Inverse folding.
């Protein structure tokens, strides 16, 4: 009797890849073979300055997005279901307001992730494995 099923191995691989991506994005540096340091990525969220204030996505994770003139300055590096889709949404500051701009790609990604969550129920690893296909 084996300890791990094929699905367990795949899900473990996905989580390992996400963990490595989080570590790489956390601002750590490593020494390259040439002896130099690689550039670091900040953990703070870049914000668009709008007459003394900023406009950015809030909250830090998930699909329930909004834009705020006071977005979070730092977010945890923990990946949450739906974070994949956030790259397709942005905040717009035209007209002096801070508003959310979504597009068809965001809408399709969000619908896919929501369907994954619904189908997986309380099985978190299944939801993440499904989301990877969105």
């Amino acid at each position: 009797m084996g300890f791990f099923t094929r699905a367990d191995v795949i899900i473990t691989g996905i989580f390992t890849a996400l963990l490595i991506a989080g570590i790489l994005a956390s601002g750590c540096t490593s020494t390259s073979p040439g002896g130099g340091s690689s550039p670091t990525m900040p953990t703070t969220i870049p914000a668009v300055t709008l007459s003394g204030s900023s406009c950015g996505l809030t909250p830090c994770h998930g699909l329930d997005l909004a834009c705020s003139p006071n977005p979070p300055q730092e977010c945890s590096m923990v990946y949450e279901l739906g974070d994949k889709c956030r790259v397709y949404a942005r905040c717009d500051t035209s007209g002096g307001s801070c508003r959310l701009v979504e597009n068809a790609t965001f809408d399709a990604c969000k619908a896919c992730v929501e369907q994954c969550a619904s189908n997986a129920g309380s099985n978190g690893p299944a939801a993440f494995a499904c989301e990877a296909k969105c």
